[in-house]
Amino acid sequence: MVKIAFDVMGGDLGYQEMVKGAVMANNQDIEIILVGDENLLKNELEKYDDMKNISIVHASQLIGMDEEPATAYKEKRDASITVATRLVKDGLADAVISSGSTGAQMTAGIFVLGRIKNIKRPAIATYYPTANGIKILLDAGATPDCDKENLHQFSLMASIFGISFLKMDNPTVGLLNIGSEDKKGSILYKDAFKLLKEDSKLNFYGNIEGRDVPKGIVDIVVCDGFVGNIVLKLMEGLSSVLLNQIKENITSKIIYKIGGLLSKGAFRNIKAQLDYTEYGGAPLLGLKGISMISHGSSDAKTMMNAIFAAKRAVESKFNEELIKYFEGV
Amino acid sequence: MVKIAFDVMGGDLGYQEMVKGAVMANNQDIEIILVGDENLLKNELEKYDDMKNISIVHASQLIGMDEEPATAYKEKRDASITVATRLVKDGLADAVISSGSTGAQMTAGIFVLGRIKNIKRPAIATYYPTANGIKILLDAGATPDCDKENLHQFSLMASIFGISFLKMDNPTVGLLNIGSEDKKGSILYKDAFKLLKEDSKLNFYGNIEGRDVPKGIVDIVVCDGFVGNIVLKLMEGLSSVLLNQIKENITSKIIYKIGGLLSKGAFRNIKAQLDYTEYGGAPLLGLKGISMISHGSSDAKTMMNAIFAAKRAVESKFNEELIKYFEGV
User: Fold this and answer.
1) Does the reported pTM lie above 0.80?
2) Which of B139, B178, B184, B235 should be substituted to probe chain A, the one whose Cβ sees the most A Cβ atoms within 10 Å?
């Protein structure tokens, strides 16, 4: 049975919501290990009936969103994210998930699990809905300062991940740039372009522009962690601003309201198409173990989906493929 | 009377559409100088009636979207964008506008007009609609490789521009970053943060995230030209993808369709709120003369608005303010 270590002390909505997510995912052929304050979690679990397959591992500390990750890691050896990641390292869990501090999760990943041989830097690979199906964007913020080799390795890692986990067939890779022409870009992106173009193992599409990201014209969008983080948060923010504008306009006149009620189902579809909670977790690629990052604002349903996503990630064996590829290089 | 030099040979829709835009802006207390192939333009203008205040200056060459700007500038001394920019340099026009190659317009701006003393690099300042009114974002692509001093100068230039041109009152400046906390970011952005924070002349808000851009929580969003270009094209692309999704969903069932018809007016409002054609042109800040860039796909109405925007830009005297500020430093 797949075993998931779940750091329940992170996340904006508190451990109660996280535990609820674990309970929702229960009885699904998954063993869930809740990591956090044992007393709190025991009391919380008593509220529910059927707790088979859910266990608790105690961690006395937690790392907050505002703490400097490397310092916090050193000073809080018993932090929930560190304890949960150690379960993976020790073979007691197959993957770790958390909606706590991304920096803390990454630091624990690098120091506890370690990087895959020959991988210079890890990347967060998010998958997101587009007009053309689910696509991958990386790096979403693990490595804000990249060099061209980082961007090259991200492309290779995402290709392997896309094939194993999302069942993509020969996924196309686009380099996110300020123009589609070959010679466009900053110095970094001009250099990276050459490297990607030369690598015959990649199905390199070429440069793509900002407007191509939501259109989904490539399977994998590659960029540095600074750009990727801004792009993802912008898509999230703009969708929500637009949906609010629609709501405000539709409720501004009685006739619009009636129209809005009749077409409510259509908007439910649109909202579902934009619903990031269906996805759950983004893996940190490049580590010797699976660590999946969830949004800080994740609710129980999102964490249930994150648990399912982690299970699928384990079963897809994408990380074995990554290790085989890079250690064999 | 304000005189606008209009390079009509650039733009995706052809000179006919550009001339139409000029005709639409005619009789508005503006002198419009069309720059391009004299024979073509004369024939085109003959289609219209009242041509007072529109004149033609001949340019025998044009620079295409795919040409390398610096090379094209050197090899095509009689290119329309160069000739139009020279009219500003020689005092024969107050501003130049174009929807041709941005790189070519910038190169002409730097070589013909020259940079304002003490300005290291120019920036394209776009203004865009948000949930909270019109806001400024720069750099939209003039300087893809920035250093911290560039970002500092962009902040100062945009503040002066915002006050003079958009009548902003003590505009807030946000640094676009991967977290709102003070110490977040890539090396460049961490360094820039310190510089902006130290400058008491700026109304510095601090770091903002991608999701804050469409919300409009600051008056001025500062970032390098690589990030800014991607952000703007992403906003454009995502709005259009979302509006298409709405259309598709609403037409998928007859009941939704009826609802959609009743609430049509609401969607017209939303589209108008997202209509970038109302704005027209983005100035290239940092030059000893006004050069305003329009979108390559601009139609006649957009170019009419670009002419009006250029007139307002001249009358606002923002560039005199910039020159006074930086030459006095």
Assistant:
1) yes
2) B178
